[in-house]
Amino acid sequence: QTQKAMDVYEKAMEVDPNNAEAKQGYKDCAVRQYSGNSGDPEEVRKRAMNDPEVQQIMTDPAMRMILEQMQSDPQAVSEHLKNPEIMRKIMKLKDAGLISMQYR
């Protein structure tokens, strides 16, 4: 059910990217889906890697290069987030708990 709700919120964000309710709903679902009862990073990683979409993102050479660049050059994040597809993938990894981002 949580994945279905996330899909609906994602469609809503495609229609209106600034819709706060859709963003919050998506975030709440993602936290519920990936956090379970464990705060253990290894458990979070295992759970996230069971998601086929996360697996696909993590095995994509272009995405791995982007993630490495974002680690070494935090300013690169804003450039990459301008691409809606890259942004969606990065947000998926963030929501899965595999990456964290600081907003300034």
Summarize the structure in words:
The longest helix is centred in the first third of the chain and has 16 residues, at 20-35. The protein is globular and about 35 Å long. The chain contains 7 helices and no strands. By secondary structure, the protein is mainly α. Helix 1 runs antiparallel to helix 2 (20-35).
A few lines on this structure:
This protein is mostly helical. 73% of the residues lie in helices and 0% in strands.
DSSP helical segment count: 7
N→C terminal distance: 33 Å
Structural class: mainly alpha
Helicity range: over 70%
Which series of helices and strands comes N to C? HHHHHHH
Rg from alpha-carbon coordinates = 14 Å
Number of beta strands: 0
Mean pLDDT: 82
Enumerate the spans where pLDDT stays under 50 for 5 or more consecutive residues.
Answer: none
Strand content: under 5%
Based on Cα principal axes, name the global outline: globular
What profile does the largest beta sheet have?
A: none
Structure keywords:
mainly alpha; 0% strand
List the SSEs and their pairings.
Elements: H1 2-15, H2 20-35, H3 41-49, H4 52-59, H5 61-72, H6 76-80, H7 84-95
Helix pairs in contact: 1-2
